[in-house]
Amino acid sequence: MHGKEPLYRRVNTRTHGVRHGGSDYKFSRHIKKQDKTSRGSMHGEKQHGLDYTPLFRFLLSKVGQDWAEVHNQAVARLDRQDPIYWMVAVIEAERKPFVRIGENSYYSGLYVDEDNRLALVDPGLRLEDMRPSCSCCTHTFNGKPFVREYEPI
Questions:
Q1: Residue 142 burial (10 A CB sphere; 0-12, 13-18, 19+)
Q2: CA dist., res. 147 & res. 139, Å (int)
Q3: Which residues, at least 6 apart from 83, have a Cβ–Cβ distance to it below 8 Å?
Q4: Contact by Cβ (8 Å): 89, 121
Q5: Per-residue pLDDT for 126 more than 60?
Q6: CA-CA distance, 146 to 71, in Å (whole number)?
Q7: Pairing mode, if any, of strands 144-145 and 140-141?
Q8: What are φ and ψ of residue 61, in 5° steps?
């Protein structure tokens, strides 16, 4: 019997036209005046090709449940813990009604309340309240496309 599915997916990053930045090294490697501090490893901290949408859906489905259990379940099914805290604010000062993940994806902000339960920062926030920032992209809130049209200000 296999364990549960991971809460992330691998995305194709080798397709033609997929760009991930990081090309500045090729322009700076032949500069004559170069200090040794900039000659570090070319392999940075970024991990491309991972989509954490299943994690965000999982966290939203666990609102109202015990944080310790939810956290343990999520960590067991992830490659690292960082993406959990993109959405869940542990410190009160970090609470936001919604968080932006990527360019056009927005999710409800979560926090751990005084009873150690996962809760929404703004339970009254609805899809109808969200406004897109441009007309060229499809913006989503909790995985659903915005219903309002773009209105230039």
A1: middle
A2: 9
A3: 8, 52, 55
A4: yes
A5: yes
A6: 29
A7: antiparallel
A8: -75, -15
Please choose, from the candidates 60, 27, 34, the residue with its C-alpha nearest in 3D space to the C-alpha of residue 140: 60
Q: Which two tokens stand for residue 92?
A: 């009160």
CB 11 within 8 Å of CB 51: yes
Dihedral sign for Cα 145, 137, 11, 119, please: negative
Burial of 2 (0-12, 13-18, 19+ CB in 10 A): exposed
**Percent of the chain that is helix, strand, coil (3-state, to 5):** 25, 15, 60
Residue-wise pLDDT for 12-47, tens only, equals 666 666 665 555 656 666 666 655 555 555 555 556
| Residue 29 token pair | 């490697």
SS3 111: strand
- Residue 1: band (very low, low, confident or very high) from pLDDT cuts 50, 70, 90: very low
Instruction: Count CB-CB contacts under 10 A for residue 94.
Output: 13
87 touches 112 (CB < 8 A): no
111, 87 contact by CB (below 8 A) = no
